[in-house]
Design brief:
- The chain has about 250 residues and is of the alpha/beta class.
- Helix content is about 30%, strand content about 20%.
- The longest helix is centred in the middle third of the chain and has 13 residues.
- It is globular.
- The two termini are about 30 Å apart.
């Protein structure tokens, strides 16, 4: 993997829907925490001290669990994913050509998919690259993705924006291409444009997904890697998700 790619893993959330007192990323599946499962594949591409993990809610517990082996960055206020990445600016700006952004509660992404998104981004010299998940429907295990953001494309297949589920219209909720929130973005463009997102949404948070709208508006080069494995990109957002994951993944 290119040394010009940096990485940020977002692990600061409480995970309100989990109804538990521990950080969501410390939830266990068969004795292994979500973030440790993710890190097993991430470490095939990145040295530990080059892995930047954003912590927030009970962040000391996350740091202690991971034995301080990584570079931890604090998000003191829970103001959304865009805000979380912004906390990394001082440490990372100008250090890498591009930044790969992952979520600590999406533990099953494979080595192959990580390699493919990095190669797609570098080989095409894209400014903004993202993974999308294309489903046939939201039935059975696909219901895991019902509350994921929707990928909105134009008639030519170009990505226009991502609409968060809470902000989606009924029409948009029926779109079956969803956002697992995995991006690779050129360094300078990322930091310059994080300043341009706002919190004019239901949650009053700064969504990282708004960068897609900005990239489209500016006409920068964008790439998408479409994945069709409906279990690889599942996030653990509720106890129901956790029970399904335990049955599927060992």
């Amino acid at each position: 993997m290119s040394e010009k790619i940096g990485i940020i893993i977002l692990a600061g959330g409480k995970g309100t829907r989990m109804n538990q007192e521990i950080p969501k990323v410390l939830t266990e599946i068969n004795g292994v925490t979500l973030i440790e499962k993710l890190l097993r594949n991430v470490e095939k591409f990145f040295d530990r001290k080059e892995i930047n993990i954003v912590v927030g809610f009970k962040g000391e517990d996350v740091i202690n669990k991971l034995q301080n082996r990584y570079n931890f960055i604090w998000q003191k206020e829970q103001l959304g994913t865009g805000h979380a990445v912004m906390q990394c600016r001082e440490s990372l700006e100008g250090k890498y050509k591009s930044i790969l952004i992952l979520y600590g509660d999406t533990p099953f992404i494979t080595e192959n998919t990580l390699r493919n998104i990095i190669e797609l981004h570098e080989e095409n010299n894209y400014v903004f690259s993202m993974i999308t998940l294309k489903l046939d429907n939201f039935e059975n295990t696909n219901s895991l993705y019902w509350k994921f953001g929707r990928i909105i494309r134009d008639e030519n297949g170009k990505v226009l924006m991502i609409v968060e589920f809470k902000d989606a219209t009924e029409y948009e909720k029926n779109v079956t291409e969803v956002n697992p929130a995995i991006y690779c973005v050129k360094d300078d463009w990322l930091w310059n444009n994080l300043e341009n997102i706002d919190n004019n949404n239901f949650q009053k948070e700064y969504y990282l997904t708004d960068l897609v709208f900005l990239a489209n508006k500016q006409g920068v080069s964008m790439g998408t890697l479409i994945v069709r494995d409906n279990l690889e990109l599942m996030g653990i957002n509720s106890q129901e998700d956790l029970e399904i994951a335990k049955k599927i993944h060992n």
